[in-house]
Every structure is written in C-alpha cells, then in structure tokens.
Design brief:
alpha/beta; 6-stranded parallel beta sheet; elongated; binds cytidine-5'-triphosphate
Length: 391
C-alpha cells in the first residue's frame, strides 16, 4: 500500500486550512507519489507557492494562461486529483462545469478519480445551495473526505474543519486501490484478551492490535465489508468497519461464532490469552506474600473454526520468538487453517508495538518469506494471497 509511481494533482483553494496543504503534499511525496500542486489565487492569501513547491518537490501551477496547454498535459497521465482544502466556491464551480481558472479547467480535462476535502464555516456547509452543488458533484463519483466537526477558524463550533491529513491520504490511497475484495465479507480479530483474576486484576498478552487493525483497514480499502473484533487496544477502528469489542477469550469466541457464517475469510490476528484463571474472584483478592493462580486453557477459537465442515477461508497467526517456523507449521495442521502468518516477535523491527513487520506465509505446500515492510504493506500481502487462493 503506497502511492509509488502515482501522479497526484493536489488542488489548493482559498481556505484557512490551506496551511495544512504543505504537510499533505509532503506526506504524499513520502508515500511515493509525484505531487503537482495547483493553487487558486485565493489560496495564496494563506500559503505561498514557494512553500508548496518545496513540500511537493515540484513546480506549482496557478495561472490558466501561464503555459497554454498545461491544463491538458498536466492531467493527461495523472492518477488522482485531490482538492484539499476544497472551498464552497470550487465545489460550486466543479458541480456546474465552470472553468474560469487553472484548477477548475484541469478538473474538466481530468478523467481519473477525484477526492475533495471540504473546509468552510458550518453554516456555509449546511447551506442548501451548497448542498445541492455537493450532492451533484458526488453523483459523478467524486469522493468526499470530511469535513470534521470541531472548532472552526471563525471561533465557532461545527462541521467544517478540513479532514485530518492522514485521513485524506487514506482516501487518496483508497481511490487508486483496485477493489479486488468487492462483494467479499472479511472478519478480522485483533489485539490481546484480558483474563480476570478478580475485578481489578487480569492476565493478558502483549499486543497493540496494530497488525489486525491494518488488515481491517486494507480490506476496506480493497472493497471488502469488514467485521473487526478486537480486544482492548488504543487504536481507532477504521470508520467503515463493523467494530465489536471483546474483552476475554470467551467473549471473543462468542463474537466470532456469531459472525463468521456469512464471511468469505476469517483472519485471526488477535493474541488470544492461552490461559484464564479457573475461578474469577468476585471481590478483590487480599494481597499475600505469594499467590498461586490456578489456570485453565482458553477455548482455541482458530482451531474451533478450523474444525468446522463448512467454514470460510481461514488465516491464523503464529507469534514466535525466533526464526524456526516448525511450530507455526504444526499450528497450521493442528488448527486446520488455510495458512499461517509467522512472525518473529523477538526482532526489534517486527512484532509488538512497532509499525513494521517481517512475516513468512506458511501454507501446506509452500513457504513464502516476506521482507520487512510496514504493517500496512504486510496487510496487503496477506490479503493479496487470500484473493489468489479464495474461490
Ligand atoms: N488463537 C485462538 N484462540 C486461542 C489461542 C490462539 O484463536 N485460545 C489463535 C490466535 O489468534 C492465532 C493463532 O491461534 O491466530 C496462534 O496463536 P498462538 O498463541 O501463537 O499459538 P498457540 O496455539 O496458542 O500456541 P503456543 O502459545 O504454544 O505457541
């Protein structure tokens, strides 16, 4: 998942949020895109062409007649156009085919995906004339991201803040992603579980939930309907996922059993606790010099789904401390999964809390090592293999 080899046109219009466009341009280039900024005259009140030229590492376009045919050449081979911030004025012009400046003219000459990130006062955003323009634009398949609710530049509160830069980047990436999981339903488990000793103490597994959340996000980007069942995690679930919180292993099991039936694939990235206290005390246990915990095995959710006669495509994870894949292979057979994602959590760049991972995909007759990459990219590798194998 990246914007490598993608040509992105970033339109910047006259809203105070334009100062954030420099950060956006920079992040788009960091994601691998070649970024070409088009500024409207009004946007120059908020940010300079030089700032955007430095951030995008490219020339900035503005005047319609600076270079007579660039409104055709610039857009001819572009992959996506993103307007951030998009004012009520530019949305009105786009919706009505008005081409009286370089940006609106380029919009008409462009054939690819367009993403708009509106930014304006909430009263302007709710104005029925504006709404009509926006609805008309969206009916042509243009993608909208935001606006967010919050404090506005004018000092008022409401919906009108430009979406966060990360959300805009996600929308741009989504717009250029092939929807190869369209019509598919995928269940993902993520995070740790908590097994309570008493109402205030629990045992748990180390897990941030990052890998499972990245898989859920990537599956949505590729067009799937996603159910994300997660143990306690600080991460924000992807807005389009059906999100279910599960705290304990048995709670996670119940949620999975309730939802797996009509899914095409179940991906179990959760670090489910292997043991749970045999009896949970209903009141806080008095401290003593030593304490012996009587633990029993938790239900193995992966193995339970794997044993079913009719089941979705099934992926398990094996977190190991070392490079030896033999235990992971054993889990593949014993738990009845279609493949196991092996990762060495003892490595600093792979495993807990970090944004990168180095995995090996273990199938019955094939072992595929995957080089170190971001968890977002790993998610795409896993989903890519699922789309190849799923029938
Ligand atoms: N898993 C599960 N239910 C459990 C324990 C694990 O569904 N009670 C799933 C995990 O979500 C993961 C896979 O099984 O997809 C492997 O989990 P892991 O803890 O690595 O393996 P275990 O089978 O528990 O074996 P061990 O702890 O001995 O390595």
């Amino acid at each position: 998942m990246s914007l490598k080899n993608k040509k992105v046109i970033l339109g910047v219009t006259g809203s105070v949020a334009a100062y954030k466009s420099a950060g956006l341009a920079r992040r788009l280039t960091e994601a691998g895109a070649s970024v070409h900024v088009i500024m409207t005259d009004a946007s120059k009140n908020f940010i300079t062409p030089l700032s955007l030229s430095i951030a995008s590492q490219n020339k900035v376009y503005s005047g319609l007649f600076d270079d007579p045919i660039s409104h055709i050449t610039l857009t001819a081979d572009a992959d996506v156009m993103v307007i951030a911030p998009a004012t009520a004025n530019i949305i009105g012009k786009f919706a009505n085919g008005i081409a009286d400046d370089f940006l609106s003219t380029c919009f008409l000459s462009f054939r690819g995906r367009v993403v708009i990130a509106p930014a304006m006062n909430w009263r302007m955003y709710e104005n029925p004339v504006f709404k009509r323009n926006l609805d008309s634009l969206l009916s042509y398949g243009i993608m909208q991201i935001g606006p967010d609710k919050g404090s506005l530049a004018c000092g008022e509160e409401g919906a009108g803040r430009m979406a966060e830069v990360q959300d805009i980047i996600d929308a741009v990436i989504s717009s250029v992603t092939e929807k190869d999981l369209n019509g598919r339903k995928i269940l993902v488990t993520a995070g740790p579980t908590r097994e309570y000793i008493d109402p205030v103490r629990f045992i748990s597994n180390r897990s941030s939930g990052k890998m499972g959340f990245a898989i859920a996000k990537a599956a949505i980007r590729r067009g799937a309907e996603v159910i994300l069942i997660s143990g306690p995690s600080d991460l924000m679930p992807p807005p389009k996922a059906q999100f279910i919180r599960a705290e304990t292993a048995s709670g996670m099991r119940e949620a999975v059993l309730r939802h797996y039936m009509d899914c095409d694939a179940v991906i179990m990235a959760a670090a489910v606790a292997d043991f749970t206290p045999a009896d949970m005390s209903s009141s806080k246990v008095e401290k003593s010099e030593t304490m012996v915990l009587n633990l029993v095995k938790t239900p193995d959710i992966l193995a339970e789904i794997g044993a079913l006669k009719k089941r979705p495509f099934l992926v398990g994870f094996a977190a190991e401390t070392g490079q030896d894949t033999s235990r992971a292979r054993r889990k593949l057979i014993e738990k009845g999964a279609d493949f196991i994602v092996f990762n060495n959590v003892a490595s600093e760049l792979s495993g807990f809390d970090v944004d990168t991972n180095e995995i090996t995909i273990i199938e019955r007759d094939k072992i595929t090592p995957v080089p170190l990459m971001t968890k977002d990219a790993v998610a795409d590798v896993i989903l890519g293999r699922i789309t190849e194998l799923i029938t």
